[in-house]
Design brief:
Order of helices and strands of chain B: EEEHEEHEHHHHEHEHEEHH
Number of strands of chain B: 10
Number of domains of chain B: 2
Number of helices of chain A: 14
Strand order of the largest sheet of chain A: 1-2
Number of strands of chain A: 2
Oligomer: heterodimer
Helix content of chain A: over 70%
Helix content of chain B: 25-40%
Shape of chain A: globular
Largest interface: A-B, 15 and 23 residues
Structural class of chain B: alpha/beta
Strand content of chain B: 25-35%
Number of helices of chain B: 10
Chain lengths: 335, 239
Amino acid sequence: MVLPSTEYLIYSIAYGSSLALLCMGLTLTYMVTKVPNFAHATLAITGSAVTLLLIDRIYHVFYLEGGASSLGKTPYYTLYLIAPISAFLIVGLVALIQYLLVLRPLSSRGVGIIGLMIATLAFDIILVNILTLTLYLMPTAYFGKLIGPSLKGFDASVSVLGISTSFSRLALPVIAVTLAIALHLFLTRTKFGVSLRAAIENPDLARVLGINVDLAYMTSWFIAGGLAGASGALYIFMVENFKPAVASLVIVSVFAGSILGGLGSIYGALLGGFLVGVTETFVVVLVQNILAAYGLPITLTHYQRLFSLFIVIVMLLLAPQGLTGLISRVGRGGR
Amino acid sequence: MSQPILVAEALSSGYGKFQVLFDVSFRVYENEILAVVGPNGSGKSTLLKTVFGLTTIYSGSVIYRGRDITRLPPYVKARIGVAYLPQTDNVFAELTVKENLLMAAYTLEENEARDRIEEVLNLYPVLKERLSYKARSLSGGERQMLALAMTLVRRPDIIMLDEPTANLAPVVARHLLKKISMLRDEMKKTIVLVEQNARAALELGDRALLMVSGRVSYEGPSKSLLQDVELGKRYLGLR
C-alpha cells in the first residue's frame, strides 16, 4: 500500500499543528525584533518539560501517596487542558525574560543583527542546559521504572470513526486552531491588539500617537513564548525519547515553516508551519512508499529535515516573500 | 497680529553629530498658515522634526503657549496639542482605515474617540466609504487625507505638515491644499506647511519662512516673498 495509514495522517496533522504554533510565534518575534530567535524551539521544549514536571507531581501525589484508588486515571485527562495553559504562561514568561534581559538591552546599545542572533544562540544553550539539569534532578525514579523516557504511556487512547489514535494527537490540532483564532481575534478585535500590530509596523508613528511600544513588544514576546509552550506541552506525548537537545533539530523545521510563510505574516507562518510538518511526515513516508513500490527501499524518514531545507531553498530562490507574498501576488492578478 | 502660539529661539540641531540647522529663530501666530519654503536640503523638514523632538538639539529653545517644550518627548507634545505629519509612513499601511483612526484616538476615552472619529469622517467622506480598506490600498491622495484625519482626531492646536502633496497628481495636490486652507479658515487651526511647490505654498500661506543652508533667510508676509523677484529666482525657482 503506497498511501500511509490514516493513523499516520492523524499524527502528521498533529505534528503540523505543533509546528504551525511554533512558526507563528517565531514570526511574531521576528516581526517585532527583526531577529530570528534560535532559542524558539527550546521554548517549546520548555513547554514539554512543564508537562513532564506536572505529570511527575500528579503521579507522586495521586499514585504514590494513596490518592489513586479514588481518582483512578482522571488527573491525567485534565492534563490536556492544564499542561498547555501552564506551559503557555510559564514559557511566555521565559520568552519575556529572554527579550527583557538579552535582546532589549543589546538592541538599545546598537548591537547589530549578527550580534543579536548570536545572543539568541547563547540563550538557547543556557536554556537547554538548565532544562537538562532540571529534568536530571527532578524526582523521576518513577519515570525510569514505569514509563521510560517517553510520556506515550500516559496518553489516552481514543477511537474515532473506527480509527484508533491517541488523545494528544487529536488535542493538538484543536488547540492550535483555538489559539490561532484567539490570536486573530485579539489582534483584530481589541484596541490593544490593534495597537500591537501598529507598533510592529511603524514604531515611530505609534509612539507619536501615544501607544506604549515597549509594552506591545513585551506582549508579543510573551504570546510567542506562550504559543511555543502550548505546542511543546502536548507534543511531548508523541515523542519516543525526550531530550531537551532535540530542539536543535526542531528549529530547522521551524525556520523552514516561517520562511515558507514569508516571515512577515503570522497567518502565513501558520500555513507554512503546517505544510512543513505534513511534508516532513506524511509526504516523506508517501515518497518512501512509492520508491519502495518501484524497488528502491530507502528509509527517507531519517532525512525528513532535508525536505524542509529543500523547501527553504526553493522558496528563497523562487518566492522570497513566501506564501503570503505569492498569495497577494495572485490576488493582484500577478502584477 | 495675534500672540505667537509657538516661538523658536536660536535653534541649532541635526542628526547625531551632523548639524543641519544653525541658529534658527521664527514665530508662528494663532490661526495662520506659515509656509516654510527653500531649496532641497535647506533644512525645512529638519525644522519640523526639531520642533517635534525627533532630532538632536544642540542649543536653542521651543516655546509653545508660553511653555518650554524643547526637550519633551514627541508623544507628550502630541498630547498637549502639537501635531506633526511626516512626509512618508504617516499611516499604518497594514491596518484598515478604521483601525488607523482608532489608533489616532488611542489615548482617548471610548465615547470621545467615537465622536471625534465620526467628526473627521464627516470632513473626509471619501474615508467613510473606505473604512474596511487597508491603508496600503488607498491612493496617494486618500492616504494623505487619512493622515490628516488621524491628526485631526487628536484636535491639535498647531499642525506641522511635511510636504503633504509630494508624489501626488497636480489635481489631487490642489484638492489637498484646499483642505489644508479649510483647516485654518473653518476649524481655526494653526498650520506650519513645508512644501516643495513654493508658489502654491506662498499663495496659500499668510506668512513665509525661507530656509537656505540651514538658516532663515526671510521671515515675513508670503505675498512679499512671492513678489521678491531676486529671492524667488535664486532660491525658489520662481520667475
